Structure formats: structure tokens, C-alpha cells
Amino acid sequence: MIKYLKILLKTSFIVLILIVSFTLRYKNYDQVPVVGQSVDEYSNSWVGLSLIKTGYPVGITNMKGYENNDYRYVNVDHIYQKLEGTPFNIGKPWFDHPPLMGILTGSYTYFKGAQVFEDVRLFLIRKPMVYLGTFSVLLVFLICFLNFNYFTGLIAAIVYGTTPFIVITSRMAQAENGVIPMFLLSLLFYSLFKKNKHYFYLFLSAVFAGLATLFKIPGVVSILSIIFLIYSDNKKQLKNQPDKVEEIIFFSTIAFSITSLFVIYGFIYDWTTFKNIFNTNANRYYGIGPYSIFHLLTQNKITNSKNMTDAWIITSWIPFFILMFRKKINFGEKLIIVSILSYLAIYIILGSDPFGWYTFPFLPFISIALARILYLGFNNIRYMVSSFILLLIPLGFNISHFIDIPSFQKYSNIWRFSLGFLIILFIFLKLKKLNYPKFVYLFIRLILILIFATTIYLNIKYVSSININTWYGID
Question: CA dist 343 to 101, 176, 318, 370, Å?
Fold first, then answer.
């Protein structure tokens, strides 16, 4: 009986996190980010709608390679306040990216009554993304649960579900927000395959890895990551048992077969235009520049111009480096490291313009990395100092959303002396390896949990306050 009550309680916590995550994503989802922040959202959906209505892909493009320039005013969501606004350049047949994101959002708008491009409004095309973003929160939990434990999954789901930058960006109908759940599903099924070696799980892993590339070509990261993981898990056997390579062959054959559907799609509609757009994509202006990694670690871009600085994101990169330089890592930690490094390679190779959505696929994995270090900090004195510092960064930043520096002066002594005392206590615990009473460690753990809970509460409060009026003050 007690066992079932524990299961029910643990399940209830996850359901509660998913409800909160969905609510945060749903509130003002069609207002923030504001209309026109990215015309890709419309373009993706127009491709899907045109495929359904006419069997021919049509979308917005800025690519050279289409035979004719077709400029049109499509005043969706009243995006044109004046007639002299710049018209959209329409590409036909549209090959800027694979069509799966368009099929997802376009089919949703069609079944909700959209017949022409003016009907494809943000309140429709972002609705599926709210559900998909919430589903990704569940996948983050399940990956942690399988590879670490329940509580690491709980922390990761809370962080990924409530971090303001993640909440806001997950609403957008960008292809990367389709790549993320496919990538996570492929890793989830590979984790299941690793546990019981049932090839059905490896098959599902390959299917979802392949589907990731049909949302956007950088989705190939899901294929590469799992190939690296298979190789790493079997490298000793590969030397003595070459037949072990069959797992890589099995996985790669299925995954790349699905990826090839995009090539077949291009061949069917217009092979010459498809090749022209592919070459244009391959030779795009490298706008992210040599400082791309610096900006990745220090800036939180949503589009190419709109920033939303979030201390959680910047802080979450630190645990990744902590994990990467640990002497001994388990499979879950290896999964995080391989996934982040694989996408980093894709980001550098395929990234061109400094659009924020190129960085979105990093977000679930740095959230898991942070959750891993926080869990260790809650349970291991060696990581308590790291966890304390990691939590202080977003705590202080989140407080600044609600209390400016002059108003904060009345609380300054509490802030300074309480934190100073805790840091001195941590120094003693680190330097003096003594058998302290259990209540000392319990006290520190409670402090860490309290700081974490307060920061998450401020996350929720801050996201709930963001609307079209407050959006323009965010940077």
C-alpha cells in the first residue's frame, strides 16, 4: 500500500509540473513573442497549408535560387500597418527547409478552418507548439529518470518547464522546436535499448532521429549523437567482435532512409530548384562570425535582434563544463556531453545568421546538466558549494525583475550577511573534513532547496507578468 502511495505521489508531482509548464506556455502565447518577430512562423505554416490545399509547397523565402521572384502583400495578423510595407518574397516550390514543421502547424490551421494564408494567424500556428513544448518537458524528465533517478528528472523538468527564456521560445513555430522532441525521443528510446538490448527500441530511436531531420537539416544531430553513443558503448567489443558494428548499421540505415525522404521530395517537385536552394543554403553568409561560441554562452537571443537575458541559461552552461571534466562519468552524463558537443559542431558548421532559434536545441541538455549538478549538491558535500553558487546567480537575477536597487536597500543587510555566513560555512565544510553533526548537512540541504524553490517561484511570477505591453522593455 505504501509503495503505491509513493508512486501516486511521485506521479502527482510530475503531473503538477506539466500543468504549470503548459499554463506558462499557454498564457499570452499568441502575443509574446510579438507578431512579426519571425516570419518563419508564417512561412512554415503556409508551406503545410499549401501542401494540403493544392499539393504544392509555397512559403516565404529570402533565398536566391528560385526561378521567379513573386512579391506579395499578405496582411496576416495585420502585420502591415501601412501599404508601403515590404512585401513577402514567395518561393515556389519552397525548399528552404524540410516540410515537417509546416505540415504540423499547417494541418492544424487547416482543421481549424484556415483556407488562405491570411487565415494562418499566430493564435493558431503556435497552439501545437504549446503542447509540443510541454511534451518536451515530460521527455526531459523521462530521460533523467531512466539515466539518473526520479529526483534529477524532477529538478530538470522544473527548470526546463519554468525557465522564462525556454517558456517564451518554446511557443514559436520554429523548426528547432520540432527537432527538440524528436531528438529527445530518439535518446529516450536509445536509453531503453541500452537497458534491455531490444532492437525494437533501437528501431524507434532511429525513426525519431530521422524525423528530426525532416523538421530541419540540423536535426541530423540526433543521428550523429546516437552513432557516437553506440560507438562509445561498444568500442571495446568492436575491436574483438566486428559484428557489434551491426547496431550502428541498423540504426544508420533506418535514420538516413527517413532523412532521404527530403531528397525524394525535392526530386518529385523540382530537382533543379531543390539543388539551387541546397547550394544557396550551403553558401549562406556566415553571420554568427568567429565570436559565435562567446555569444552562445553569454547572450540569450530569441530572433536575430531580440534578446531576453536569462540567468538560468547562462548558469546552465557551467554544469556542462563541470560534467565534461569529471574523471568518471556514467551513461547519463555521457549522453548530455555527447548531445551538446554534437549540436555544437552542427551549430558551428551549419549555423549562418545569428538567429536565436539556432540555439534552442541546446536548452534541454544544459537544463539536464544543471539538474544533475544540483541533485549532487543536494546530496553530496563535494557539490554543495557549486550548487549554492549556481542557484545564487538566477536567484539574484530573478529578484531584480521585481525589486530595483534603490528599493532593495531595505533588504541589503539580510542579503549580505546571510549569504556571507553561508559562504563562510561552506569554506569550513570544504577545508575541514570532519564528521559534522547530521543537522549541519540537513540545514544546508534545506537552504539549497529553499533557494531553488524561491527561484522557481520567481520564474513563474516573472513569466506570468510578460505580455505585449511589458515585452518591449525586455532585453
Answer: 19, 12, 17, 18
